[in-house]
Design goal:
heterotrimer, A alpha/beta, B alpha/beta, C mainly alpha, A: alpha/beta, 4-stranded antiparallel beta sheet, 11 strands, 34% helix, 19% strand, C: mainly alpha, 11 helices
Chain lengths: 338, 279, 307
C-alpha cells in the first residue's frame, strides 16, 4: 500500500469485520487499512458482501443486520458508536456517494438548500456563508450555471448533474474519507467518465481518502492505488492495483480480469470467445466447504475443498492454496495435480 | 443510406423495419394550446439477415427502446413498416401475425422481472408453446432447450426465486427459444448481471447464433459488449441511426459524433493502469 | 421460512476452525428477534380460530336460550354456577349471547369483506388492465364513493331496506369496495409493469389470461391480507351500527347489540358492557395480528429476501 505522505493517522482501519443478520453471515472477517489520502477499491459481485461492508462503515446497515469487529476512524471505533454519535459524524468526517442520486436527494427541496444545509449542520457557517460555499462547490464540480442550479429541484437536472451534486454534498465539510458505492452505475456511459474525473480531482485536491466500491474493474484501475477483491464475504486478494491487475495471484481475480471485453477479443469475424468463470456466486446460506471459490476454480485441489485459505501477510496478498506465481502458468500446474 | 456490406446484398433481410417514424403526443403546456409532439424515431430503417448478428447502441433517450418495441411488435409504427420474411406484419392476416410472433422472440434486461415469480419454471417454458398453439412433443422440446442453455431438468419444478440472476437469464433465453424462433432480440441482456456471469451469457448467445443459425439483434448501451457479440453495429442518436459499421471500424475510426462519444466513454483496465483512463 | 429461525443457526462448521476469519456465531438473540413476526401470526391465528370455533359451536350447542327472559335470574353476577359470565337485566345468559353474537359478527364481517373483495378485485383489475378512460372512470368513481361517510350509507340503507344482518353486509360492501378497488388496482398495476407480462403479451396471451394466470396469483397475498383487515373493520363497523340501533335486532344478537342493551343499564350493572366489548377487541385484534403476520409471510419481496 502506498505510504501516506504525511504522518496523519489512517483514514480507516478495519479489523476482523463481520456483518451478519439472524440467519446469514454476509461479511466473514475482513481486515484492511486505508491510509489518510489513500484510494482503495473494493471489488466484488453481488453477494460478495462489498455493499454491506460499506454500509457498516457508515453505520447504515439495514434492519436486522449487525456488525462486529473493529473499524477505527478518526481515533474512535465506529462499531461501538451510538446512532447519535454516528449521525454527527456522517457527512462530516465520513461521507458517502450512493448509486442512485435521484433517490438520495429530497425531491421537494431545492438543491442549493439541500447542500448548504449539510454545511450548516456540521459547521458554524451562517446561511449566507453556507450558500456561498455551496456555489463554490458547484463551480468545482464543473456544474453549468451554478446560480440557477441552487434554485433547481432534483428532477429538473440530468442524472450526471445530480451525481455531481451528490459529490459536492459529500465533499461539503472536507471529510477525511469518502465512500463511493457504484457511483456511476446508474448513469449513462457517456457521462460516467466525466463524473469519475470530477470525483478523482476533488478527492486529490482535498487529500481525502476514497473508498470505491464497484464491480467494475476499469473504474478501480482508473481511480485507486490499492484494491481488495471480495468473494463470498472474504477478501481473497489485496494489493497495489497495478500489481494485482497485471499479475493476479488469485484465480478469481484472474477470471474477473479475463472476462472483461477488451479490444483484443472484439471479434473481427465474431468467432472469438470471452473467457468466463464457470458456475455462479454461491448463495450465502450454502457456501461450499473450504475455499468458497473452489467449485468454480480450475486449480482446485483436495486441500481447497477442505480448508479455508487465509490471506497472506505483506503488501501483496492472496487467500489461495495454489496462487498464480508471476511468470509461471500456475493454473495448468495446479490443474494437473488436482 | 447506402449499405456498407456488399456481401449482404445477396440475401434479403429476415426482419426489417423500413423508414419508421414514431412520434408521441405530450401533455398540453397550456390549456388551449395544441399538444406538442416528440419525435422518438425519425425515418429509421434497420434490418437483420438470416444467421446474422447485428447490434444497436445508443445512449438512453436515443430511441433504442422505441426501436426495440417496434421491432418486436409491442408497438405499431405510426409511419413506415415492419417486414418479416418480406411480408408487412401489421398488414396481413392472423396467420401472418402468428408466424411473426413465433419467429421473433425477445430476451429482456431484468431476468427477475421477466419470469413470473409464482409460476414454476417448467410451466413458464411451456407457456409460449401453449399460447402460440404449437403442436408437438412439448416435454421433449423443453428438455432440448434446457440442454441448449446449459440448465438441468431439476430446474423445471422450481420457482424463479430459487435461482441466481445468471441462471434466470439462461431460463429466459430458454423460454425465448421454445417456439424455435428465427430471430432473437436481446434487449440489454447482460447489464443486470454480474461481470463473471456476463461473459457466460454473451458466450451462450454467440453459440446459439452459430449452432442454431439464429439471427440476433443485440441492443445495449455498452459498445464493447455489443461489438463482442455482433458483426454489424448501428449507432443511434436523437432518434436516428447515425452510423453503421463493423465493430472494429467503429472502434478505430468512428465517424459520427455519437459514435466517438461512445468509443471515448469506454473504460479499460489497461488505460486505467496506464493512468490515462480519465484523460 | 418460519422454521428456519430454529434450525439454521449453526455457523458454517467448515470454516469454524480457521484462524481470525472465523465468522462469529451470532448470539442466541437472533431467534428472539425473529419472534415478533411469527408471534403476531400465531397469536392472530389462535384468537381467530377460537372465535370461529365458538361461532360454529353456537349452531349446535348453547348453554341456554339467549333470547328468552328468565326474570328470576336477572343480573346474576359473573361466576354464578350455570351462568359463568352472569346474566343481563332480563336474566338471559351472557355466554349464550356472546356465542350467538360471534356468529353474527363473523357472518357480517366476513360477508362484507368477501363481497367487497370480489367487487373490488373485479373493478380494480378492470381499472388496471383497461384503457385510460375506464381507469379514470373507475378510479374517480371510487374516490366519490369514498367521500360519502359509511354511516350515511348504512343509515340510508337501513331506512330503505329495514335494518338487519343483510343490510349491514350491503352497507359494509358499499363502504369497503372503493378502498379494495384502489388497493387491488395499484397492486395489479405493479405486476402489469413487470417484464413477464410483456413476454406473455408478446407470445399472444390475451388480457383475461394475463389477469387470471399472472396477475391474480401475484396479488393473492395482498388480497388475503386486505381481507383479514377489512374483516376486522367490518366487525367493528357492525358493532357500531348495532350499537346505534341500525344493525341487527332480536332475535338476532350481535356484540354491538349487547353493548347497546348494556349501555341502558349502566349504573345498574356496568360489567355487562365489558364482555361484548372484550369480545370485539379480541376478535379485531386477532384479525389484525393475523393480517400483519400474513403480510410478512406472503409478501413476495420479503419472502424472496429471506430465502
Amino acid at each position: 500500500m502506498t505510504k501516506p505522505q504525511t504522518n496523519r493517522p489512517d483514514a480507516l482501519e478495519v479489523q476482523n469485520l463481520v456483518v451478519h443478520n439472524t440467519v446469514l453471515t454476509a461479511v466473514r472477517g475482513i481486515d484492511f487499512t486505508l491510509p489518510a489520502g489513500g484510494r482503495m477499491g473494493l471489488v466484488g459481485e453481488s453477494g460478495s458482501g462489498k455493499t454491506l461492508t460499506a454500509l457498516s462503515l457508515m453505520g447504515l446497515l439495514p434492519m436486522g443486520w449487525q456488525a462486529n469487529g473493529t473499524v477505527r476512524h478518526d481515533g474512535v471505533d465506529l462499531i461501538t458508536q451510538s446512532d447519535k454519535a454516528f449521525s454527527s459524524r456522517r457527512g462530516r468526517t465520513i461521507s458517502m456517494v450512493f448509486q442512485d442520486p435521484l433517490s438520495s436527494l429530497d425531491p421537494v427541496r431545492r438543491i442549493g438548500f439541500q447542500v448548504s444545509s449539510v454545511i450548516r449542520r456540521h459547521t458554524k457557517a451562517s446561511k449566507q456563508e453556507a450558500e456561498a460555499q455551496t456555489l463554490e462547490l458547484f463551480r468545482q464540480m464543473s456544474l453549468p450555471r451554478p446560480e440557477q442550479l441552487m434554485r433547481a429541484y432534483p428532477h429538473e437536472i440530468s442524472g450526471g448533474q445530480r451525481q455531481r451534486v451528490m459529490i459536492a454534498m459529500a465533499l461539503a465539510c472536507y471529510p477525511q474519507l469518502i465512500i463511493a458505492d457504484e457511483p456511476t452505475t446508474a448513469l449513462d456511459v457517456t457521462v460516467q467518465k466525466q463524473v469519475l474525473r470530477i470525483l478523482n480531482n476533488a478527492v486529490q485536491e482535498r487529500g481525502c481518502a476514497l473508498m470505491m466500491i464497484t464491480h467494475d474493474l476499469p473504474i478501480i484501475a482508473a481511480m485507486c492505488d490499492t484494491v481488495a477483491v471480495m468473494y463470498a464475504g472474504r477478501i481473497v486478494e489485496m494489493g497495489p492495483v497495478s500489481e494485482v491487475f497485471r499479475a493476479p495471484r488469485h484465480h478469481y481475480t484472474k477470471g474477473l480480469l479475463d472476462s472483461q471485453p477488451t479490444m483484443d477479443n472484439i471479434a473481427l469475424d465474431g468467432s472469438s470467445r470471452l473467457a468466463s468463470i464457470p458456475g455462479m456466486v454461491p448463495p450465502l446460506h450454502s457456501l461450499p466447504r473450504g475455499c468458497a471459490f473452489h467449485p468454480r476454480c480450475s486449480a482446485a485441489s483436495d486441500r481447497c475443498r477442505a480448508e479455508v485459505p487465509q490471506l497472506e501477510t505483506g503488501q501483496r496478498r492472496a487467500a489461495c492454496w495454489h496462487p498464480i506465481e508471476a511468470g509461471a502458468d500456475a493454473t495448468v500446474q495446479a490443474g494437473v495435480t488436482a | 443510406m447506402t449499405r456498407p456490406f456488399d456481401e449482404h446484398h445477396l440475401t434479403p433481410p429476415l426482419l426489417e423495419m423500413r423508414q419508421v417514424t414514431q412520434t408521441y403526443l405530450l401533455n398540453r403546456k397550456s390549456l388551449l394550446g395544441a399538444r406538442p409532439s416528440l419525435t422518438v424515431l425519425d425515418n429509421v430503417s434497420f434490418d437483420v439477415r438470416p444467421g446474422e448478428a447485428v447490434g444497436l447502441v445508443g445512449e438512453s433517450g436515443s430511441g433504442k427502446t422505441t426501436l426495440t418495441r417496434i421491432l418486436t411488435g409491442m408497438e405499431k409504427p405510426k409511419q413506415g413498416h415492419v417486414f418479416y420474411n418480406g411480408a408487412d406484419v401489421w398488414a396481413g392476416d392472423g396467420e401472418r401475425w402468428r408466424n411473426f410472433r413465433r419467429s421473433v422472440q425477445v430476451v429482456m434486461q431484468s431476468p427477475r422481472s421477466s419470469l413470473d415469480p409464482r409460476m414454476r419454471i417448467g410451466l413458464s417454458l411451456l407457456e409460449p408453446l401453449r399460447a402460440l398453439k404449437i403442436e408437438g412433443d412439448h416435454v421433449a422440446r423443453v428438455h432440448e432447450v434446457l440442454d441448449q442453455v446449459g440448465m438441468t431438468r431439476q430446474a423445471l419444478e422450481r420457482y424463479p426465486h430459487e435461482f441466481s440472476g445468471g441462471q434466470l437469464q439462461r431460463i429466459a433465453i430458454a423460454r425465448a427459444l421454445m417456439p424455435a424462433p428465427k430471430v432473437l432480440i436481446a434487449d440489454e441482456p447482460v447489464s443486470a448481471l454480474d461481470v463473471s456471469i456476463q461473459a457466460q451469457v454473451l458466450n451462450l448467445l454467440k453459440d446459439l447464433v452459430r449452432e442454431l443459425g439464429l439471427s440476433l439483434v443485440f441492443i445495449a448501451h455498452d459498445l464493447s459488449v455489443v461489438a463482442y457479440t455482433t458483426s454489424r453495429v448501428s449507432v443511434m442518436s436523437a432518434g436516428r441511426i447515425v452510423e453503421v459499421g463493423k465493430p472494429l471500424d467503429l472502434f478505430t475510426k468512428p465517424q459520427a459524433e455519437a459514435t466517438q462519444n461512445l468509443v471515448g466513454a469506454i473504460l479499460t483496465v489497461e488505460a486505467g493502469l496506464a493512468g490515462n483512463a480519465l484523460a | 421460512m418460519m422454521t428456519m429461525s430454529k434450525s439454521t443457526h449453526a455457523p458454517a462448521p467448515a470454516s469454524g476452525s480457521a484462524g481470525p476469519g472465523v465468522p462469529i456465531s451470532p448470539p442466541a438473540r437472533k431467534s428472539r428477534r425473529r419472534l415478533p413476526r411469527n408471534a403476531s401470526l400465531i397469536l392472530g391465528l389462535i384468537l381467530t380460530t377460537i372465535f370461529l370455533t365458538v361461532a360454529l359451536v353456537s349452531f349446535f350447542y348453547l348453554p341456554s336460550n339467549p333470547n328468552i327472559p328468565v326474570i328470576r335470574n336477572r343480573l346474576l353476577p359473573a361466576g354464578t354456577p350455570g351462568h359463568w359470565l352472569g346474566t343481563d337485566v332480563l336474566g338471559r345468559d351472557i355466554i349464550a349471547q356472546l356465542m350467538v353474537g360471534a356468529r353474527t359478527s363473523i357472518l357480517v364481517g366476513a360477508g362484507g369483506a368477501t363481497l367487497s373483495l370480489i367487487l373490488g378485485t373485479i373493478a380494480g383489475l378492470a381499472a388496471a388492465a383497461s384503457g385510460k378512460i375506464t381507469d379514470e372512470a373507475i378510479s374517480r368513481g371510487a374516490d366519490i364513493l369514498l367521500s360519502i361517510p359509511g354511516m350515511v350509507t348504512a343509515l340510508v340503507l337501513a331506512a330503505t331496506m329495514g335494518s338487519g344482518a343483510l343490510t349491514t353486509i350491503l352497507a359494509l360492501t358499499a363502504f369497503f369496495t372503493p378502498s379494495f378497488t384502489r388497493v387491488i388496482r395499484s397492486a395489479a398495476m405493479g405486476v402489469l409493469n413487470e417484464d413477464f407480462i410483456t413476454a406473455a403479451k408478446l407470445y399472444g396471451r390475451g388480457k383475461i389470461f394475463v389477469l387470471a394466470r399472472h396477475v391474480l396469483p401475484n396479488i393473492a397475498g395482498v388480497m388475503i391480507v386486505q381481507f383479514t383487515l377489512y374483516f376486522a373493520a367490518g366487525i367493528l363497523t357492525e358493532a357500531g351500527l348495532s350499537y346505534l340501533g341500525v344493525g341487527v335486532h332480536r332475535p338476532s344478537i350481535s356484540w354491538g347489540l349487547m353493548l347497546n342493551e348494556a349501555q341502558q343499564q349502566v349504573g345498574v350493572s356496568s360489567p355487562l358492557a365489558i364482555w361484548p366489548g372484550l369480545a370485539i377487541v379480541l376478535m379485531v385484534l386477532g384479525l389484525n395480528l393475523l393480517g400483519d403476520g400474513l403480510r410478512d409471510v406472503l409478501d413476495p419481496k420479503l419472502a424472496r429476501r429471506a430465502s
